[in-house]
Amino acid sequence: MRLAKYLAHAGVASRRSAEAIVAAGRVSVDGRVVTDPARAVDEDSRVALDGRPLAGPEPRVLYMVNKPVGVLSAARDERGRPTVVDLVPAGGARLYPVGRLDLDSSGLMLLTNDGALANRLTHPRFEVPKTYRVTLANGPVGPDAVAALRRGVQLDDGPTAPARVRRIGARELEVTIREGRNRQLRRMCESVGHQVVALQRTGFGPLRLDALAPGSHRRLRAAEIERLRAL
Asked: Catalytic pick from 102, 114, 157, 210?
């Protein structure tokens, strides 16, 4: 394992920040200062930061959270606003969100300290589906608008991929997309003449929000994590 990755898994910092820490000469391996973040280490290596031995990579954990409206999709906020990480007592683990939801959106988010899994779940080439319940203004939603969303619509940053759309009320849709552009679903709905007044993520890959209350969390079971890895 690369030294920077080892530090990230030990909860010291993000991998990019860990590279800077190593380059600054703050890390030693087996008693010698190392400045190359690509230096190979293993579980038997004696790694220390600023002279303090590290216990090694912390156990990987993954939590599901029901993010309320008004909570930031971030690990921390310089202005002191509540973040999604604040919702989970992590017991010392350095958690960060997998992807994001807008401040004015709610629903299913994942928090983890497993950088490799987080990358797989958010990288565009893996096309992990995410499902949303969308409440729209200017209803009812007509069949032409639904058909356009299913085909894909033209946005200012290019066309969207086809979406899976199910009508669940006069002004409510269930929409599944496999992309993750900035405020994408809101912009898609606006392109067919409907402003979003409420947006809740209800599904992430094989996971469903179900009865998890707003602001609540639960740790994912091993079988659920394996299903995510299989994506």
From this structure: 102
The helix or strand, by DSSP H or E, that contains position 147, with its residue range, turns out to be: helix 143-151
Residue 102 annotated in active site: yes
**Among the listed ranges 16-20, 34-38, 82-86, 129-133, which one has the minimum average pLDDT value?**
16-20
Domain closes at, from 30, 53, 76: 53
The two tokens of residue 24 are 């600054």
Strands (E), 89-216: 96-98, 106-112, 130-136, 154-155, 158-159, 164-169, 172-177, 196-204, 207-208
Give tens-digit pLDDT for 168-215. Answer: 999 999 999 999 899 999 999 999 999 999 999 999 999 999 999 999
Helix (H, G, I), strand (E, B) or coil at 170: coil
Tell me, what CATH number does 223's domain have? 3.30.70.580
Reading the block at residue 144, the tokens are 């032409």
